[in-house]
Amino acid sequence: MQWGDLAGAIIKTGATGLGTVIGGPLGASLGSVVGKEIARRLGVDATPEAVGQAIQNDPRAADVVQAVEAEHAALIVELEKKALDHQLALAQLDREEGIFSWGWRPGGMWLIGFLWLQNCTLAPLVSLFTDARVPMIPWDQLMVFTGLFSGFYMGGHTIKDAIKTWRSAR
After folding, report:
1. Counted domains in the chain
2. DSSP labels for 93-116?
3. What global pTM score does this model have?
4. Alpha carbon 120 to chain centroid distance?
């Protein structure tokens, strides 16, 4: 479990700003600071698991979390601003590079979705109700194409995360 996993529980206590930031891309930064403070005040270990259990079970947890949010309001606002600045920079980069720099991902997903729809639904239905024969993509080729695209699309982050986890474990 990571600090970002506590975002929903923190929001339920009424500390929506804190929960939103912890659940965002900069959550690890804030979680390590604020999570330790919440843990200290609740008298539990400074781990996301212990804090999560305390938020669920301790009746004073909502007051503690809201107090910590109020005390760290400036840090929360600063991190929210950084996250918004980051989103703006990404949007500007997408605009500068054009659709071909990022459009291959949604385009590829729509193409794969259509090819599966054709093989699983359209071709059999057209063949069933008419004399027309809609060509189907060979299943083995469709599987390979889907696997390759998925590997390129999702595999890069998976490999990056695996290396990051491996390095942190050493």
Report:
1. 2
2. HHHHH-HHHHTHHHHHHHHHHHHH
3. 0.50
4. 30
